[in-house]
Amino acid sequence: MNVEEIYKAMQEKLRNVVPEAELRYKAELAAEINRLKEEKNAVILGHNYMEPALYHFVPDIRGDSLELARKAAQTDKDVIVFCGVRFMAETAKILNPQKTVLLPAQKAGCSLAESITAEDVRRLRQMYPGVPVVTYINTYADVKAECDICCTSGNAAAVVESLHSDTVIFIPDEYLARNVALETGKHIIFPDLKGRSDNAADTDVDFQMIGWRGRCEVHEQFTVEDINTVRQQFPDVVILAHPECSPEVTRAADFSGSTSAMIKYVEQTTAPHYLLLTECAMGDNIAAANPDKEMLRLCSVRCPHMNEITMEDTLNALKHNRYVIEVPEDIRVRALRSVQRMLEIG
Ligand code: 13P
Ligand code: SF4
């Protein structure tokens, strides 16, 4: 599509979510990104949290962490531009060592990935010898390399159950671990690295999940009070919460699932109002794609990391071949085992 065609399509799709004054400029950026993408034989992957113009008009493939990891494993392009955060781009590199993987903004991190180190995992393994370690995909490659298998919000319970193990270490998201423990009927403890449990009475029992106290700085902010307040005002609202929210919040919500599961839920149901407890851009993206759905866009929390990725950065990534993601080969091959084992589960 040329600039004029993209501009018209943007006017049509984004009229309720992006100010008209921004659209022509964004259309020009999108056209230039598409041109360079062809020239460099690149594919652009975009996470569901990207801002609406980028999300709807730039990526070849959109999705949640699991879908994007699967697609990254299948591409035949020379260059992968990852419009998401660093751990996602690293996963693409782990799966595609021969390809150039670019992350458009250097600072796009994640509070969960930063909550745990490879050394922490080694110490957990010493404390619980022989216990398999599941890592949420929101970790860096060196942490994945110390673990047995990855999971995402879309398959966490299935991954834990696939291990058929009495006890499982699940890192680093405390709330996802608690939600999985509830879903799979498991008892969970949170030891510190000195060997103490936060619940002394539990140390003798045959506990089944051992968690870590990482949190998503976005999802930990949602509370049951938020839900109650919205329900008072909109009694017919359907509330969807990401499983990185606390179990109190996911239980008080009507549905909990990965970002793509939430999108599908809204697409496939008919409710007077929907509220998403997740990164705000997703509400805009769903509203743009489903003008007939009434999204309550009570936008209070943004992911500062996902928000680092802009259309300008994406264009510059292609133009200047930046920022190249590298994973040392010895770490990559070990991390790959954890990622592949997850992908084989389906
Ligand atoms: P999804 O895998 O559900 O897209 O989640 C990724 C993420 O970082 C949510 O905060
Ligand atoms: Fe990480 Fe939370 Fe941002 Fe997702 S929303 S990238 S888990 S900080």
TrEMBL record:
It comes from the Bacteria. The keyword Plastid does not apply. [4Fe-4S] cluster binds at residues 110, 216, 303. Pathway: Cofactor biosynthesis; NAD(+) biosynthesis; quinolinate from iminoaspartate: step 1/1. GO terms for molecular function: 4 iron, 4 sulfur cluster binding; metal ion binding; quinolinate synthetase A activity. Its main location: cytoplasm. It is found in: Cytoplasm. Catalyzes the condensation of iminoaspartate with dihydroxyacetone phosphate to form quinolinate. Belongs to the quinolinate synthase family. Type 2 subfamily. NCBIfam families: nadA, PRK09375.1-4. This is Quinolinate synthase. It comes from Caldithrix abyssi.
